[in-house]
Amino acid sequence: MSIGSASILSRRPSQHAETCDVDVTPIMNMFIILIPFLVSMAVFAHLATHAFSLPADDGAGQARTTAELPLTVAVSADRLVVALGDHELASLPVDALGTYDTAQLVDVLTSERQRRPEMNEVVVAVDDGVVCAAVVRCLDHCKAAGFSDVGLAAGTNLDREGVR
Amino acid sequence: MIRTSILPRPRKATNGHTRPQLTSLVDMMVILLVFLLKSFSVEGQLVSASADLELPSSTAETVAEPELSIEVTTTGINLDGARVAGFPATAAMDSLVIAPLYDALMDLAVITETQPITIQCDRRIDFAVLKRVLFTCNQAEYDDLSLLVLQEAS
Fold this sequence. Notes:
By secondary structure, chain A is an alpha/beta fold. Chain A has four helices and six strands, in the order H-H-E-E-E-E-H-E-H-E.
């Protein structure tokens, strides 16, 4: 039998090849077993925890004076105030939509962290009227700036008590 | 001859019966399989948030461990799933200590040692409420506290 000059590729597919169909039934069976198993084991919402410390109960007469306070981020409904001791470092009012200036907050915290590498404590002091989501966001920014010891305290009203 | 339908012509019957076209179904299954494999977790989710809670989102990465939990929802405060205080009554109290929560924590402290507490707080809750919960925990000598958050996709 002669093969001739035409290559195998140039040959016209036969009628049998055109109608050939892959049997996908086994792979469909596998998918039907595998997909419910994976759906049952899938985690769509990842939960994490935010650890924080509460202010120590120093007792009467042993509380720290304003000048001895650590770096503090005071969160109120209308602004963020960053203060160290009795010195105000930044006052960041909310914008017209009520959004906090978190980019500026991160800048201030990061620069303070770089200026004082030995200081790893920051206290987030929150006033009443601030929602929990904003508190968590502030804790995030403190950790992002490199502070490992983040405390949570009730508002100190730094901006209303004549902090310089 | 002009075709009157845009739908593909039905396949010719082989051996007297037609075979359904499964290619698109297999494509869909493969996409689904890749997505599910990506979100597959061997250990699963150890902690589950309360159903009526909208947790705050965060960049925190500490994996949540099963611990004693206090759920602060928009309707009340639960301790390990059991309602201990409802909000209209709790908000009316002047004291910073939430008495029913304090009592429940003290009852637990009698049975077991003081243990870490995970606070599941709704993202819309006022800090005034959270402050009272924290103060109550502190008064009951539960000092190892953490907030449960929804981890943001990195």
